[in-house]
From TrEMBL:
Annotated keywords: Cell membrane, G-protein coupled receptor, Membrane, Olfaction, Receptor, Sensory transduction, Transducer, Transmembrane, Transmembrane helix
Keyword Amino-acid biosynthesis on entry: no
Entry GO MF terms: G protein-coupled receptor activity; olfactory receptor activity
Protein name, entry field: Olfactory receptor
UniProt xrefs under Pfam families: 7tm_4
Chief place of localization: membrane
PROSITE patterns reported for this sequence: G_PROTEIN_RECEP_F1_1 (PS00237), G_PROTEIN_RECEP_F1_2 (PS50262)
GO cellular component entries: nucleoplasm; plasma membrane
Residue ranges of the TM segments: 25-48, 60-78, 98-120, 141-162, 197-225, 237-259, 279-298
Gene: LOC115276581
Length: 318
């Protein structure tokens, strides 16, 4: 590795699946196919949310943002990971690592906040349908979506700025596929308790607070649905939020599984993180963005009709 005065780190080595060449080839093909599905699925949702006038509603505006976010989020890490699978050189520059940390954290934070905004939108639609056009007007939902992006960028900028100022010594091996911020922090040859405190505050504000908003919103939604007398009415009300609820369960469920999964004493140290843990982390960043368009397409009549209309129009033009 390259060093300056043996103390200033200029690049990192991304360990990934080094030592597992067969797995690298297998997962290169698998992750590539999943990335193509992500681009096609989310790209289609973006196109129909812009093109189809029937989808000019807050829910589909948020959905278009979520799809764009998923494309950005996966593009910050998947292409470089695919290259590393086929390349013997698995290094990334210090500046490149900082950019990857910033983009990954910004997209992840934005998605958490955006899912909270979408839960509030579903709450208003089901619990206050008569006031929905007023509460969720364009003057409301556009700033809500913009605010999600701004929060993500600010949180990521602050945390990344504190991390890049840390001194890094001889250990430059990141036991991960990409520059995950916590993995990079642990390589610093200095006290990182301040950084960990900032991360704890940010996690509480931008991950747990949206989750609390989601739980409260769906609790109120469930109470409201149970008050509906007819089974048809309850089914229709639930169908309006089932897709979003499914996405939330997959998104937060994967996070909880990844970070709360019991670890043996041998794997508590990031240097000893096994291949299974790293693959779980990798698929967390791939499966949710891939599943989102499938869930919204399969469980939403408006989206299915818009996609069919788009395909018919494309075939007719040919």
């Amino acid at each position: 590795m390259e060093w300056e005065n043996q103390t200033i780190l200029v690049e990192f080595f991304l360990k990934g699946l080094s030592g597992y060449p067969t797995l690298e080839l297998l997962f290169f093909v698998l992750i590539l196919l999943m990335y193509v599905v992500i681009l096609l699925g989310n790209g289609t949702l973006i196109v129909i949310s812009i093109w189809d006038a029937h989808l000019y509603t807050p829910m589909y505006f948020f959905l278009g943002n979520l799809s764009f976010l998923d494309i950005c989020y996966t593009t910050t890490s998947i292409p470089s990971t695919l290259v590393s699978f086929l390349s013997e050189r698995k290094t990334i520059s210090f500046s490149g690592c900082a950019v990857q940390m910033f983009l990954g954290l910004a997209m992840g934070t934005t998605e958490c906040v955006l899912l909270g905004m979408m839960a509030f939108d579903r709450y208003v639609a089901i619990c206050n349908p008569l006031r929905y056009p007023v509460i969720m007007s364009k003057d409301s939902y556009v700033p809500m979506a913009a605010g999600s992006w701004i929060i993500g960028v600010i949180n990521s900028a602050v945390q990344t700025a504190f991390v890049v100022q840390l001194p890094f010594c001889r250990n430059n091996v990141i036991n991960h596929f990409s520059c995950e911020i916590l993995a990079v922090m642990k390589l610093a040859c200095a006290d990182i308790s301040g950084n960990e405190f900032i991360m704890l505050v940010a996690t509480t504000l931008f991950i747990l607070t949206p989750l609390l908003l989601i739980i409260i919103s769906y609790t109120l939604i469930l109470v409201s649905i149970l008050k509906i007398s007819s089974s048809e009415g309850r089914s229709k009300a639930f169908s309006t939020c089932s897709a979003h609820l499914t996405v939330v369960i997959i998104f937060y469920g994967t996070i909880l599984f990844m970070y709360m999964k019991p670890k043996s004493k041998d794997t508590l140290n990031s240097e000893d993180l096994d291949a299974t843990d790293k693959l779980i982390s990798l698929f967390y960043g791939v499966i949710t963005p891939m599943m989102n368009p499938l869930i919204y397409s399969l469980r939403n009549k408006d989206v299915k009709e818009a996609v069919k209309h788009l395909l018919r129009r494309s075939v007719f033009k040919k």
